[in-house]
Design a protein that fits this description.
The protein is an all-alpha fold. Helix content is 54%, strand content 2%.
Length: 496
């Protein structure tokens, strides 16, 4: 059996050194226009197979009837790593419009829909005809939500650049219920914008500058609807040229707009920023320090409630700030009241960035998030970065420092003492002494584990009843033996 010195040495060799990595895609860096990121190669166009597409359409329709319109992950139904031909884009635009409209007409009893009669037959008639720009426009303006976002993937394949710009920059009276343009812009930015050439972006730039009118921002005092701002003005969607100005990095246009926003303008109602997307305007600034300053000034969070872009603002923030401002992601996750959403956002956070700087943020999420288990999992699965990051927290005061020390003691029990000592020596004397006294030299009191004979009757009864009422699966990533003992006098709870 290995002694503790041998075990520490083995672990020190097996565990990688401190590492820093950002799992961002090339298109994520396009949010930071000051980076002058290289162009991204456009995927190949896939060959259109109508028979195969019809089979897929029938499968999608079956899932639609069995579940519902909003339960389907539409993007996963298609291979979006490839580009669509004009013929295939036409097929899917018409086909999806048809099945969604038929579903909505029979939403109370979708099982009565006859796929061949109600979908295929009218679809065949429409597919034989070419579709014009005006027909596309009429088609998309009648849609909304998930349907129009999905159609936004296919529409640009059927239009010239000039027609796309005309469609997406058209000024519309977009209140809360008029969202087709907003949804298509979101889809276009994700699936088409990364592959535009500089020449195409220059065409966009000229048109956006021509359309630019700062008074059109919904909360601008000169806006014609401003007197009625307490009657839904926050829910008015800004003209899309504001968003494209951000994608193009038109800093000189965006900065005066952003500087004119009152510090508390987006604190009046919780959902204000959902419709205006002020974060996107700020991401268009060509100075990461200004991005940080205005996000903090306006107290804007990085949560996005769009069903296909939940971590999009995390990616944009990291593209600008990398490891220097992770606390803002933590603040954004901490305020999420829904446990499942909090877990989803925490997992996104942990999958996008891995570095010692993440450890204090995950530590905070274990204390203040609605989904602490996801944060705890990261700490235990990344011991080197967790130890290196938690060491820096030990000299702070309060609950955060105490919790960091407990985690480090837990890592010490697991055999990481040499690693803890090694990383502590890289820090200031204050941190090194704190770790030495509270972790390395710390000796935990030994308790006797309760067994069948020593367990008091009330404890036996309580545990027996608890096991009957709860079905709890143990966490594979937590060793209960390494956690602080739950003691009663000289005894402690055993692992069972």
């Amino acid at each position: 059996m290995k002694n503790s010195t041998q075990l520490n040495s083995q672990i020190d060799n097996e565990v990688s050194e401190i590492s820093r990595s950002l799992s961002l895609k090339p298109e994520d860096y396009l949010w930071a226009t000051w980076r002058n990121s290289p162009s991204i190669e456009c995927p190949k166009v896939q060959v259109f197979d109508q028979k195969k597409s019809l089979e897929l359409l029938e499968q999608i329709f079956g899932r639609l009837v069995k579940n519902n319109l909003w339960a389907i992950d539409w993007e996963k139904e298609f291979d979006l790593s490839l580009r669509f031909s004009q013929e295939e884009a036409h097929f899917w635009l018409i086909a999806l419009t048809k099945i969604i409209s038929v579903y909505l007409e029979n939403v109370s009893n979708p099982t009565k829909i006859d796929f061949k009669k109600d979908v295929l037959k009218p679809l065949e008639e429409k597919l034989t005809k070419n579709i014009t720009f005006s027909e596309i426009k009429e088609l998309v303006t009648k849609q909304g939500g998930v349907a129009i976002y999905l159609m936004g993937i296919f529409v640009p394949y059927l239009l010239s650049l000039e027609e796309t710009i005309e469609l997406l920059l058209e000024k519309i009276d977009a209140g809360y219920s008029v969202s087709w343009q907003n949804e298509i812009v979101t889809s276009y930015r994700k699936h088409h914008w990364p592959y535009l050439s500089e020449k195409e972006k220059e065409t966009w730039r000229k048109k956006v500058i021509e359309a630019w009118d700062v008074s059109e921002w919904p909360l601008n005092p000169n806006h014609p609807k401003y007197p009625n701002r307490y009657q839904g003005i926050y829910y008015n969607l800004p003209p899309s040229f504001f968003r494209f100005a951000a994608y193009l990095g038109l800093h000189d246009y965006l900065l005066p707009l952003i500087e004119g926003w009152h510090d508390k303008v987006y604190l009046m109602e919780e959902w204000n920023d959902t419709y205006h997307k002020p974060q996107e305007m700020i991401f268009g600034l060509r100075d990461p320090k200004l991005v940080e300053m205005h996000m903090y000034r306006l107290k804007l969070k990085l949560n996005i409630w769009h069903y296909k872009s939940k971590d999009e603002y995390f990616r944009a923030w990291l593209a600008h700030t990398e490891y220097s401002a992770l606390c803002h992601i933590t603040e954004s996750v901490s305020v999420i009241a829904n446990k499942d959403l909090a877990e989803s956002f925490t997992n996104s956070f942990s999958s996008l960035v891995n570095a010692p700087e993440v450890a204090p943020e995950m530590l905070e999420l274990t204390l203040f998030s609605k989904a602490p288990q996801a944060a705890k999992k990261w700490l235990y699965e990344n011991p080197a970065n967790a130890i290196a990051g938690l060491i820096k927290v030990t000299t702070k005061r309060g609950r955060l420092a105490d919790t960091a020390i407990n985690y480090l003691r837990s890592f010490k029990k697991k055999g990481y003492q040499d690693l803890i000592s090694k990383f502590a020596k890289l820090e200031t004397n204050e941190i090194m002494e704190r770790v030495q006294t509270t972790v390395i030299d710390y000796t935990e009191k030994e308790y006797i584990a309760f067994d069948e004979k020593s367990s008091p009757n009330w404890l036996k009864t309580g545990i027996s009843e608890l096991k009957k009422s709860l079905k709890v699966k143990p966490c594979a990533w937590v060793d209960l033996g390494e956690l602080p003992a739950i003691s009663i006098g000289d005894y402690k709870f055993n692992e069972d």
